[in-house]
Amino acid sequence: MRTVVFLFVLFLACFTILMPSTLHLGGLTLYRPVIRTPFFTRDLNFKLGLDLQGGSHLAYDIDTTQIPGSDWGQAVAATVANIERRVNLLGVSEAVVQTSQANDSYRLIVELPGISDINQALTTIGATAILEFKQVHQATPEAQPEFTATDLSGADLKAATVQFDQSQAASAGRPVVAIEFTPAGAQKFSQITKSSIGQRLAIFLDDQLVTAPVVQEEISDGKAIISGDFTVEAATGLAIQLTAGALPLPIHLVSQKNIGATLGSESVVKSLFAAVIGLIFIWFFMFAVYGRKGLLANIALTFYIFISLSFFKLIPITLTLAGIAGFVLSVGMAVDANVLIFERIREEQRWGRRPQAAMELGFLRAWNSVRDSNASSLITASLLFWFGTGSVRGFALTLIVGILVSLFTSITITRALLRTWNL
Amino acid sequence: MEFIKYTKIYFLISLIVLVPGLISLIFIGLRPSIDFTGGSLIEIQTRQPVSETQIRQSVADADLDLSSLVRSTDNSYLLRLKPIDQSQHDSLLVALNTSYEGVFSQRFETIGPTVGAELTKRAVMAVSLASLAIIAYIAWSFRSVPKPYSSWKFGITAIIALGHDLLVVLGLFSIFGHFFAVEVDALFVTALLTVIGFSVHDTIVVFDRIRENLGKQPHLTFSQVADFSLTETLGRSLNTSATVILTLTSLLLFGGSAIRWFVIALLIGIVSGTYSSIFNATPLLVLWTSRSKPVQK
């Protein structure tokens, strides 16, 4: 009786985690809960890797050669924070920004699931976005202009947005970038404009002259417009870059993977189908070889699948193609402990023990092999986790979760079921 | 059943599988993918049939260095090139679309040479560390083996069986690389590490039984205990491998092309792992321990 209650509660817990976010049952509508604690939030959606939902994986080298080693940690953190802002501005949901360190070099990984315009992403992330304002001195209209730097820079910027030219001039309706300075920046800007009325003020982005309008009057409200020959996309890109600010350290793209979405969804359907077929094979096999005991092991195996999938959502583990393959493989290995135990029970019976005693002894004596053999798999899976990035890690994590959960289902659950029903 | 009597036959079978693979491995080697060497990979799909020569021509016109071209399905090709960037990729696609309307890029990967070198280093490290960790773990967990048997011998023998399985997979993939242009990538290393786990898993189950029986039947010789233990664990070894092979076969048949060679590597490794744990590891342990026995007496 206790077993039934326990399994029922376990089933309900898994069901709550695994069900779709809303479920209609007759007239009843069920909503999947969202776990919220002060430390973490889980929306209980499956996280799909890039190979399954399509998207881009970008790896950058962070160039730290220009600054002393003692400043690396801080500069890298600032660079990453900046890249995160830029990625957020791209509007990709569930984007991932990570760094890894190997010896003296830092690697930055950006994953952009479901991104459609990779070129925009590459320019937005990679742009250095150094904004400078320079005063222009020109002796005669024909002479080469001379630029003198001002103390006003991108750091004084509060916000940059895209607007459309509302003047009556020929440029009306064209996209422009409206910038707003911080109070300190507004003060500097006011002084610069005051001292250069009638002259040009040049705006440089990454050492490129963007525009050099003539200053008509002192601007003291800290607002200005950068107008150029912009398309809407270019203006948006510029606004994003200006808002995100300059990168503290230069970065270089070292590897890039783009995966089309259709390729991924085909693979998901195929490997899920394969998983179901594999599961049916195992069900038949276990029943054919171990009879009634095999049926109970099959129930435990079904729980194995429910519990593992629940953990995938709870941890959460990003599912990749290799990860799904690892899971299908682990379904095959999950019955291994049961096979070991059942074979042992058979032997104990062959040696003349009564079924009840043989069963208990089988569980007890098979434990050594079960523990040792799973320990070796855990060791390699952990090393796999360390070795890999991205999809390999997903595979390793699914294996690790699979091994731990299978120990629970194939020993605890199967034993409870056997005690209740076999004898 | 008497297993140990036929030791020579088992080793011969292993050699027949191993030698061609080893020769191929030494003289031809593996075909490393861009994961290790660095480079670019583009998977394109065309709406209308486009021939290989036509694609080669377009790539050459775009002034790109094509290292291999493989047709994966009817209207889909895998192109491997020296590293190119997004804009070069885009202009190639534009060129292809101008000539043969409806060409899509399904996948585009570029990996810099330093990233590839790092992966190679880490793969070698991971495989070596896994082997060392397993020797240590087996030596520790078999420390209660009755005297005069050494638990280190159990560990090292398990690793030799493991080496056998790795070489079988590596050798066959070297041959596959030669005949079917199969490349080894990060996923292949993943498969190798999984095979390591499984192979040792199998060996441990047999060794565990030997340890148990050594204590229970002190009057038997080591070789008799080994025979006895192998007979007892045979059912389990075959049944477990059967369930794993069933799931892998269904992945191979229905799982799609993206992970086909990954699954094949796993299948080969697991079949080899089952074989080596029964027919290599235990006979080897018997050979080793019986030789050293007279010395200890």
Properties at a glance:
heterodimer, A: 423 residues, alpha+beta, Multidrug efflux transporter AcrB transmembrane fold, Gyrase A, domain 2, 2 domains, 4-stranded antiparallel beta sheet, 10 helices, 53% helix, 22% strand, B: 297 residues, Alpha-Beta Plaits
Description:
The complex is a heterodimer of chains A (423) and B (297). In chain A, the strands form 6 sheets. Chain A has a 4-stranded antiparallel beta sheet with strand order 7-8-6-16. In chain A, 53% of the residues lie in helices and 22% in strands. In chain A, helix 1 packs across helix 7 and helix 7 crosses helix 10. Chain A starts with a helix and ends with a helix. Chain A is an alpha+beta fold. Chain B is α+β, with helices and mostly antiparallel strands and 297 residues long. Chain B folds into 2 domains: 213 residues, Up-down Bundle (Multidrug efflux transporter AcrB transmembrane fold), CATH 1.20.1640; 73 residues, Alpha-Beta Plaits, CATH 3.30.70. Chain B is elongated and about 85 Å long. The relative contact order of chain B is 0.14. The chains are: A alpha+beta (423), B alpha+beta (297). Chains A and B meet through helix 4, strand 16, helix 7, helix 8 and helix 9 of A and helix 4, strand 4, helix 5, helix 7 and helix 8 of B. Strand 16 of chain A pairs antiparallel with strand 4 of chain B.
Secondary-structure map:
The complex is a heterodimer of chains A (423) and B (297).
Chain A: H1 2-18, E1 22-25, E2 28-31, E3 35-36, E4 41-42, E5 47-48, H2 50-53, E6 55-62, H3 72-90, E7 96-102, E8 105-113, H4 118-126, E9 131-137, E10 146-153, E11 157-164, E12 175-181, H5 183-195, E13 201-205, E14 208-211, E15 223-226, H6 232-244, E16 251-259, H7 261-314, E17 318-319, H8 321-350, H9 355-387, H10 391-421
Parallel strand pairs in A: 5-17
Antiparallel strand pairs in A: 1-2, 3-4, 6-8, 6-16, 7-8, 9-10, 9-13, 11-12, 12-15, 13-14
Helix pairs in contact in A: 1-7, 7-8, 7-10, 8-9, 8-10, 9-10
Chain B: H1 7-27, H2 34-37, E1 39-46, H3 52-61, E2 66-73, E3 76-81, H4 86-99, E4 103-111, H5 113-141, H6 151-180, H7 186-216, H8 222-254, H9 260-296
